[in-house]
């Protein structure tokens, strides 16, 4: 690739996984090995996995996360543990949440706050002494945890279930591999231009439009986070799991039981369209309001 393409254009990059692992983001961060990761793709993995447990935006709420995993009787090995991103910032125990997720063999899509924290950690290690209060905790994050954050993909796909996880959302009509990385983890609402094409609404600049899920008509069932303002969102083709634990509401997990005879079978093409009926939701109450609700609409 021409070197000029290696930097910049972070929001406009159109690339395939693995093709250009040396790509840097606008902020100079290395892109992970896979921007669009897949899981449960081998027979061995599919056979040993009994349930998929997908947890919404944790934001450092370690106690609630542990309580939720206990409530769903999480068992490492038979349960595949996935997170919707934004594991860190705003709440009390960001480093411990990362370490617990790693210990449990969990994986996450990248949230805007995970990305922001990683950038702050890298700036700190380049010698920057002043960090915004929101990310000052990264000074206590070990390198191994930062490396793990850096490995997080923007989406996790389970092809056999036609299930896709993303932190923000998808702009309609744009193929997955051409979605802007910035949009994937910040999208909430859409704006239509005069030619009828959709793009992300810049709500910092006062733009508002329909939520992306009301327009989305893609092939994958999408589980997303990042929108605690709307709370739990159950749609025909999507499920929003950010139920605002850090703002004093609840932390929610979606459970997909792969052993239930009425549930999905991996490799079952008939499964598409019924996923929402097979998903069981479990929540625990937040122990505190850790962050003021005015932070809910923050992008950074
Ligand atoms: Mn977010």
TrEMBL record:
Annotated ranges, domain Calcineurin-like phosphoesterase: 51-227
GO cellular component: cytoplasm
Gene Ontology molecular-function annotations: endopolyphosphatase activity; phosphatase activity
SUPFAM superfamilies in the record: Metallo-dependent phosphatases
Leader sequence residues: none
Coiled coil: none
Pfam families registered for this protein in UniProt: Metallophos
GO biological process terms, semicolon-separated: polyphosphate catabolic process
Name the UniProt record assigns to this protein: Calcineurin-like phosphoesterase domain-containing protein
Species whose genome carries this gene: Symbiochloris irregularis
Lineage: Eukaryota, Viridiplantae, Chlorophyta, core chlorophytes, Trebouxiophyceae
